[in-house]
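On clarity, I found the account of how folds are encoded harder to follow than it need be. For illustration, here is how one protein appears when written out as sequence plus C-alpha cells:

:::
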Amino acid sequence: MTAAHRGSNCLISILTCSRSVGIQILALLLVSVIVSSASAQSNQRPRSERHLDPSGFPWPNGAEMALSLTFDDGRSSQVTDGVPVLDSFNVKVTFYAQPENMLEELELWQKAVASGHEFGNHTIGHPCTGNFAWVRYDDVALESYDIGRMRAEVLQANDEIEELLGVRPVSFAYPCGQTYVGSGTNTESYVPLIAELFQTGRRWLDETSNAPDHFDPAQVMAMRMDGEDFSTIRRLIERTKRNGNWLVLAGHGVGDSNRWGTDLGMLRELLAYVQEPDNGVWIAPVSEVASFIAKEPAIRK
C-alpha cells in the first residue's frame, strides 16, 4: 500500500470517528433537552392551580387544616352573646382585648379566661392611622407614634390584662392591622417589637391563610369574619383545606347587625361544622396552633 493510500484511509477513519462522536454528542444534547423539558413540565401547573401547594403539615388527629377564631377590642357582646355559644360547643378562641373595654363585664371575662379562652393584647388606645377622625380625636394616630411610645403602651396593656384576668398575653393583634409608626422618612415597622414581646402578632383584612412552613409568627394573616355568612366562610375553609394551611378569622362584635359584627347564626353553623370530625378541621386558639407548628417540622413538597 502506497503512502497515499495509507494517508487516505487514515483520513477516512478520522472523519468516520469524528462523525460518530458528533452524533453521540448530538444525541446526548437531545436527551438532555427532552429530560429538562419533561422536568419543567412536571413542575409547572395550569394557571388555575398555581394557588394550590399542599403543605402536607401533620395537623392533630389527621385534620386537613387548622382554624382559629379571634375577636378584637374586648367588646361586651363577645362575652355576653358569643362566649355562651362558644362554650356550648366547647370551642376555645382568642380575644384581643383593650383592658378598659373589659371593665363593664369584668366578671364574665374572668369566667371566660377560667374556661380556657385565650386573651391577647390589643394595646391601650387602639392606635391606627390618623386618617380616621376618631383616631385624631383620641390622640392615637400612628403617624405621631415612635417605637418607644408603642413599647410603653403595649407593655402597659399586658400589665393591666394580667391584673384584671390573671394571665399575661403571649398573642398580639395589630389595631386596624397596621404595623407601622411615624410617617414619611421617619416611618418604622413595629413588627420587630411585637416579635420580641409576643409569640405571635395577628394582622387584619388579609387575603390568604398561613402556610405552616412559611408564615411569619409576628405577622399572622387574618381574614374577615364580620358580616359574612356561613357559605362565604365555608369557601375559605375549603380553600384552606386544599393547601393544608392555618386559617385565622377575625371579628369584632358578636350578633351586632353591622359590618363590624359576627352573625350569631353564622357562628353556630361554623361551630357545628368544625365539630364534625369528617370535615377535617382542627380548631384551637392562636397560641395553641402557633405552639404546635413550632414543635412540628413542616413537610415541604
